[in-house]
Prior knowledge:
The chain is of the alpha/beta class. It is built from 15 helices and 15 strands.
Amino acid sequence: MVPIPISVQHAVIPAPSSIVMATGQSFLIDSSTTITVEAPDAQRVEAQRVADQLAALLWAPAERARRAALARTSGTIQLTLDPAHVELAAEGYRLDFTGAGVRILAATPAGLFYATQSLRQLFPVSVEYPAAAQRVLRVNATTIRDLPRYEWRGAMLDVARHFLPLRDVEHFVDLIALYKLNRLHLHLADDQGWRIEITSRPNLTAVGGSSQVGGGAGGYYSQREYRELVAYAAARFVTIIPEIDMPGHTNAALASYAALNCDNTARPIYTGTDVGFSSFCVEADSTYALVSDVVREMKALSPGGYFHMGGDEVKTLTPTQYRGFVERVQAIATANNMRLIGWADIAPARLSPTTIVQHWSKDSLALHVARGGKVIASPGSKTYLDMKYDTATTLGLSWAGRIEVKDVYDWDPTLVTGATPESVLGVEAPLWSETVTTIADAEFLAFPRLAAIAEIGWSARNARAWEDFRLRLAAHGPRLQALGVNFYRSPQIPWP
């Protein structure tokens, strides 16, 4: 193994806007260290939750209980939330080491949380292992000033082709939150499966949720489970983005309700991987009645306020039929106070500037940009996590090419054809699941490439350098291992 050069001063990912490490100074955290919170009453609960999450990382439950009775003789980690610091915006923070300990300042609870994730990465890897007894952690004195580049920094999980249980998705939320990603886009419906309970349409899960690629039991999330996931993610400042793909990629729904088909005949369950063969009957009122039911129930489950309609790879409709369908779905979303998102295939429709299009391949992105619309950059050849790393990779596909870590890192969202710098809302890395059957498979394809995506989304372009990143990423190998992540050991990275 190649050792990590001593010139690497820190291993924080994404790279902060500014970071200075003091020579020969450090801060000791032990059983007498305390965490304090200063916040306005309206935000105290969220700020305290961030403090509690940090405490849970540092000390075992029994140790936290014992510490409550101790006199404070050591330093303090102080979390200060002050909305008056508008220069820190919605997600920025300051982190300072003083003689008395660590001081974190942010204008929002999200900023406090991201500061603690940077602090976490400054701690030795041992912090990632469960603390069964008292332990001592030493961290170098560091000053950080940090703001994100983009407001949308996301990953996508396709749970439609292969279903992942709730706890696995929560685990994935934990991993992306470590890298300051703030959106988890869930692809909840496709030809092979429907994964979210719609109480007014029970066949969607009773029939449509009963299988997956290659067969098998499939599965779905009850509304109770979905609310639990939304709350779990929100506690880590991750917004869940639900996608119900339509009018294509809809065979699971077409198998569930005959009236969605123009011949009024339910389709058989599909367990293959072909695309483009299915579509709602866009002339039928029953189609829009179902769409209205789905959007209405997803609104009640989605405090984030977004509805992703998919809209990609529709090969059985005329352009006029397709555009008309998109415009009707947009109206339904608007009527339910949800902001519509769609793959950039929807751009030729008459879209509102508030609708978001997600770039993935050659498309009509410029049409929406000209309207003043926003774009999520997710080009298949740079951000698709289901692409193989190289010719030896057994998982994944290769239709968009093979994507190593450097291929991801060297790309930038401003390179998307048809987009302008002002139109780019952010970046998202999709993980489609034709070959992904377990969370371990998902981890292998996502990491370490998702760390590169996180840095693209957070760090200024002129602050990024591959040689620096690959050394910082190498230091994350032991951390990912401690977290039990089945990551790909790319030969481009000098893992210790």
